[in-house]
Amino acid sequence: MTIIKGRTGEWEMVIGLEVHAQITSHSKLFSGASTTFGADPNHQVSLVDAAFPGMLPVINKQCVVQAVKTGFGLNAHINLESVFDRKNYFYPDLPAGYQISQYQKPIVGKGYLDIDLPDGTSKRIGITRLHLEQDAGKSLHDQSPKDTYVDLNRAGVALMEIVSEPEMTGPEEAAAYVKKLRAILQYIGSCDGNMEEGSMRADVNLSVRRKGEKKLGTRCEIKNVNSIRFIMAAIEYEAQRQIEIVEAGGTIAQETRLWDTTKHETRALRSKEEAHDYRYFPDPDLLPLRLDAAWVEDLRRALPELPDAKKERLMQQYGLKAYDATTLVADQAAADFFEAVAKGRDGKLAANWVTVELFGALNKLGREISHSPISATQLSELVGLIEDNTISGRIAKDVFEVMLETGQNPAAIVQEKGWQQMTDMGAIDAAIDAILAQHADKVAEYKSGKDKLFGFFVGQVMKATGGKANPAALNDLLKKKLS
Amino acid sequence: MGFVQYAPMDTETVARVARLARLAVSPDQQKAVAGELGQILAFVEQLNSVDVTGIKPVAGVHDDALRQRDDVVNDGNCAADILQNAPQTMADFFVVPKVVE
Amino acid sequence: MSTLTDLNMQQLLVGLQKKDFSALEVAKTYNAAVEKAAPLNAFITTTPEQALKQAAESDARRAAGKAGALEGVPLGIKDMFCTKGVRTTASSKMLENFVPTYESTVTQKLFDAGIVSLGKLSCDEFAMGASNITSAYGPVINPWTGADPVHAARQLVPGGSSGGSSAAVAAHAVVAATGTDTGGSCRQPAALTGTVGMKPTYGRCSRWGIVAFASSLDQAGTLTRTVWDSAKMLEVMAGFDDKDSTSADRPVPSFTGACGQSVKGLRVGIPREYRLDGIPDYVNKAWDDGIAMLKNAGAEIVDISLPNTAAALPVYYIIAPAEASSNLARYDGVRFGLRVPGKNLIDTYEQSRGAGFGPEVRRRILIGTYVLSAGYYDAYYLKAQQVRAKLMADFKAAYEKCDVILAPTAPDTAFGIGEKTADPVQMYLEDVFTVTANLVGIPAMSVPVGLAPNGLPLGLQIMARNWEEETMFRAASALESAAGFSAKPPFRV
Ligand SMILES: [Mg+2]
Ligand SMILES: [Zn+2]
């Protein structure tokens, strides 16, 4: 729990998130127009999306499938009957003057997910509901001084609105929640989780109260925050703002706010001077959505392994520590990559090479694992070379650098550079003899009790052999000779 | 459940509802409109006399389940049709007076 | 004028098939008829050139042996159906310049069957009304004037909302016309003009491409000269459409085949609650006559009860405006329709919608917005949905005892333009006998049975069970032949 020290005492926050996740589908929720990102304005719009007179919605089965699968991923109750309602309000990017959404009877009810916190613990966060709804179009306010431009390409794209219970207490928990949710959606394939393209946006509901207080404070909703970094920053800013107001004797106005990504502050929406009255009612163009229990059960059975289960398995199967397993399963591609590297290899060693060396390198390059310059097969081969003593771990790091630069296979690099470990006992023996002869004074010092010099001799032999001496063999031999 | 007795339709309510419906009702029309709406409400309040205890509301006449479409792209890509009737456009965008957020 | 325009659809189809005349000759005659009928103000947009072109194509198809079911039949289309390339206004100023780039499913089916379109027929604005006086393009005039001097001295309404359709059919300016029926909009105008008006079961015809008024009630329908003509049209218009989630995936039976079949043993229900106070004697007498006609034809008459009848109109005037307030939110002057520039965006919305919609539409949007708004939803909308459920239960129970229901269509004959406008509720009472069929979804049709003492036509309504249009047509055609209604309005092309 994050505790904030105010002027007058300690404060805690109560946070709930409403995440809008764009469903992965070819066509829109109620029309056959494409959902591809980045088309020319109004080129992915059907007459239905633009709400022309007489146009009618027909639901996309795939979107229903995705919502049900996601519901299972959130350990949630699937409602076999749900209803689509109209949420009525006027806005230029909402062509019909209403959004088709689900209000009283959503497709998915209560569930939960377990978030993984930085200290290695986990916490269960309740899911209130998941419902299907249409996305709006896009209004561009900065193209002209007097006008707003409207592009309806996104209008009607299917969204899942996933509502959490107000059970998070700080920015880290909120971040962990979004990360875990994103991982689950990606595993299921119901949302690509791409926050830059707006595939996932969060509305943050936040209130503050004095530490230990039971009663909830007045909350504000910060709309459409589109990165984990911004979610954390917005929470920090907003909590501070609310505390300052209350400590100064003020009261919090329940309002909708925006996160200003340039000024790094939240501010109230100006256009909402009137109270909302959405006049929800069942959409008479649509009938109740009824799902067959057996069909739903089939979807459940066909679910892929989800992050928590995969983490357990990686720990069991490969002997990984919780920390490494958590890191790996956070991204399905990373977990898959790891398993490809670890195939037939030592799991811990493979995990180390993926999470430390590879992740470090990718980080520096600013690349996703899907665009790794080193393939899983190549990295697996490198781990293999360490395991069969062809190279030492230290040499492996040099090989890794060359792989990054050239994309060559590790065996070829080792071959070309002549970096194979010296396993010929005779050669190591000769190298040791030469070093001991060179440093007779140090040998004497060692024998008189200066144990620390052992490392010095190892280093000198390594240097003489170009680092290729097998460390274990070298140790054994050296010990014998010095005793 | 009977009808709650609400205040009769007044000009303030007309103004509030007109705002929600984004319909200009000029102040000099408000009184007349309030009168008409009041008459209609008084008429529909005959429903008061019907006992609906335990009755499940219906939104439509047939109790069929919603038919679901296959996820195929077979529509859209008709910007000319979409924009052709618009009062104001620019570079394939619809244009409206600037929205202030 | 030519006797060609006096042929009903059935006769016209026979003549076209026998090559007594060509579709082009028919279209030319009807183009002239449409012009001659101009004083009725039934059309908003006429399409004479298109009619000639389509007629020529129709003749070519017939010559090639590819004649469709309605090959060469000239129809008028209610201006609620979106027609590709032809302005579609819904009788509103809002859509004065709206030219759809698409064709409604129902009109597409009609065109595919070979019809020739003479143009777009006026109606009440967005189909909201029972008199056609709410059209932004002026009232439509009923070709009937009545016998007595009181009536003859004034112009009468053709009913509504499909008033352009009923007037044009009655005056023989078209062979038949499409209509839409949300609360009686095909049946009531038919009753007021001596024509046949029909709405099928909800879901029988696709709503795709029809300007929406109240989605859970709207159905396409017909205005025709005879019951058979209506059955023939519906055979073409009906059918499953995967673009409408409320369209039923059911086979379309032969409705014309049901016409003329015996009603022997058919149980005809007479709802006792439809004997309303304040209804003129001649309406009840026409009803009694109708009962006798069906009885003579072999039907069994049964007394039935529809206990919640009085609640139907209030339910309708909550549900229809509620749905309409939402359906009409799309008319915001952004993508199509009228835009009146305002001080800012919200002002632009308010001015555009304030100017684009007429008083009745504005009224219904406001009522609909009100009954859905916070604090009122349960008392109005939810309650209306519950009473709607009770009405459905009433009919279910009644149809255990009978196969069809016979009732008056309208509470009186046609009234004068300008009457019943002071109090909006007065006008709403026109739908008292018709709205229930929409709330319950059942097929219903009005058949002209005679003239009132004032010389104006009266209609009776047959309602059947859901999906039993065949039974409806069977009873309606029996009533039609027994009544033998042959009176013609004084104004005829
Ligand atoms: Mg929300
Ligand atoms: Zn939402």
Protein model, in words:
The complex is a heterotrimer of chains A (483), B (101) and C (493). By secondary structure, chain A is an alpha+beta fold. Chain A has helices at 61-73, 171-188, 228-247, 293-301, 307-318, 322-329, 332-342, 347-365, 376-387, 393-406, 410-417, 425-438, 440-447, 453-464, 471-482; strands spanning 3-5, 10-22, 59-60, 81-82, 85-88, 98-101, 111-116, 122-134, 138-140, 147-151, 158-164, 200-210, 220-225, 256-260, 265-268, 281-282, 289-290. Chain A is elongated, with a radius of gyration of 30 Å. In chain B, 33% of the residues lie in helices and 9% in strands. Chain B has 101 residues and is α+β, with helices and mostly antiparallel strands. Chain B has a domain at 11-48: Histone, subunit A, CATH 1.10.20. In chain B, β2 (89-90) and β3 form a beta hairpin. Chain C has 493 residues and is an alpha/beta fold. In chain C, α2 packs antiparallel against α3 (48-63) and α6 packs parallel to α7. Chain C has one domain (1-493): Amidase signature (AS) domain (Amidase signature (AS) enzymes). At the B-C interface, α1, α2, α3 and β3 of B face α11, α12, α13, α14 and α15 of C. β10 (147-151) of chain A pairs antiparallel with β3 (93-97) of chain B, so a sheet runs across the interface. Zinc ion binds next to loops of chain A.
Q: Which tags fit this structure?
A:
heterotrimer, A: 483 residues, Arc Repressor Mutant, subunit A, 3 domains, nine-stranded mixed sheet, three-stranded antiparallel sheet, 17 strands, B: 101 residues, alpha+beta, Histone, subunit A, binds magnesium ion, binds zinc ion
